Amino acid sequence: MSQQITVTLPDGSRKQAPAGISIGQFVREHIGPGLAKAALYAKVNGQDMDLSRTLDADTILQIFTSKAPEALELIRHDAAHVVASVVQRLYPGTQVTIGPAIEEGFYYDFFKEAPFTPEDLERIEAEANKDIAADLPFVREEVAMDDALRLFDAKGEKFKVEIVRDIAAKGAKTLTLYRHGDWVDFCLGPHSPSTGKIGVIKLLSTSGAYWRGDHRNPMLQRIYGTAFFDKKALQEWLTRQEEAKKRDHRRLGKELELFHFHPYAPGAAFWTPKGTSLYQTLSTWMRRLTVEHGYVEIKTPLMFNKGLWETSGHWGKYRENMFMVLDSETGEHDFSLKPMNCPSHHLFYGFKKHSYRDLPLRLATQDPLHRNEATGSLSGLTRVRQFAQDDGHIYCREDQVPDEVRNFVKLLDRVYNALGLTYHAKFSTRPPQRLGDDALWDRAEGSLRSALETLGLPYELKPGDGAFYGPKIDFDVSDSIGRKWQLGTFQLDYLAPERFELAYVGEDNAEHRPVVLHRAVFGSFERFIAILIEHFAGAFPAWLAPVQAVIVTVADRQLAYARQVRERLRSLGYRVELDERSMTLNARIREAQVQKVPFTLVIGDKEVEAQSVAPRRYGGEDLKSMPLSEFEALLSKEGALP
RNA sequence: GCCGGCGUAGCUCAGUGGCAGAGCAAUGGUUUCGUAAACCAUAGGUCGUCAGUUCAAUCCUGACCGCCGGCUCCA
Question: Which domains does chain A have, with CATH numbers?
């Protein structure tokens, strides 16, 4: 039984080894003890494997250490097991459910009467870190389904039993168990060789969570945590979290006086003069861009009879999210505030008979929309009940779709580029439950794909993620600190034209159905502004800043000239303030910096004499005295819409 | 909506079952200064709302309102 196998390593080199050797042993004997010590898990022919697994045939082998980006995910999953074991040790009677690794860490859901307190978390964390120090090996074992069922049933783990049954129902014959210490869970793996590889566990928060995410199911107690290979990495992460908190749009919204909320209008913002300026600048900019890209802007009613929502289908599927309006005479809720613009755009399209020559018809609207979001889901400007989208619907022939994709992506690229947001496209294709035949979907997906390809735009394919009424392209942007947000969207819709019986007269003098395209670049102004506040940390570029320049005089005797400068710049359309307060020069400059105003114009006797200004950029760069006309030229470059 | 936490001056936050505190901001005065915080004084609160326990509640209890972290990242 000394059959030899060939193991191919990522560098292309090949090694011979006896069949049946464990991966760990293979690494130690045929690669090196250093790697053997650092190794966490492996990929065998592309499949994740524990190091304890054996190699039985010729394989391609990759070894992963803590340097691999995926390794964090591995130890976080390890950490979830450790935390679960500690919880069951400290709180007997607690049942375990599931505990996956997530983007920044992991969570574990427990079934337990009393919620975890912050003191509980400290205790669990301390105990979990002791288990790391004990360096308990993770032991993998495969057992028959029946044995697994008996094991968890005997432990009284009702949720585990339910999962085992589900897995069995899917046809699995065996289950993989992982033990560490005297604790056992079933898990696909892989896991690290031992708990000592985890480094450090930090528990973050608790929350309630429904079993399987369904509110009809029992409420579980969730513990969120994270893990790192060492304390330093954890500390860096915590510091980054603190930094991110400093840019939180809710905090900056207060500090920079951009918007407020009042308990009488939850989920609907009051925009201060500065916030309104931001809003209006974006709105004006988007108007200009859409006009350049061939859109016409319209306004439609904010409130509609339910007849519209019955036609659109919202009355059946979306009613819970719509604000109904009570008619005080009839006592009926026959009207609703619009939660979306599309139905009213469709009505608008239907006002007159269209020729193929009208197409594509591109309608844009920035009307306020209302959606009755669940109270618990409201959050700052990112989740609100009243908002406006930079909404647009394009009515066109099917063969015009590729051109419309290109036209849209050009618009979107201009916007995101101007703001320094990088983006990537996600192309979602037909879902299992869908409308229309395969030929239709073939054409629809084909035209989106070919448009993406002629644009040379790289995209990620999301098979099955499309809407039931058509495929779509979504755009994820990354902000300045690397967070991702889903913003722009471009969706094909074959359903709406049917429901609204939209038509155009073709060259053949017969009626045809147009295709509807839903599209947005900002998404909603509210959420987009929140993202921009965090992206720029409140230090907006001059063209977007609510106050573009603040004038401060060295002494009061320069005020008359300073007022002239203010009026001159305002007459050119710039947003300029003069700080006339009786504070020291330094204090007024500091104030302008704290408010993150792009330019502070210092005016002293020299400037009055020379009819100049001495601008200082946000951040402290002193531009030295320059003639007012020179500063005007600077503003015309940086202060005008891009 | 559900689970947990929180709600004290415009803002950030102390605090106690027995007359409510600080810093910043505000207001009045003094100061007129060359690139990140001048000085003095004054005013400011139904301690989220309503009910209950208590001789006494901002503090303890409950309900409600709002905010924050979560609630389809499924072995």
Answer: 4-64 (3.10.20.30), 71-243 (3.30.980.10), 290-302+338-536 (3.30.930.10), 549-638 (3.40.50.800)
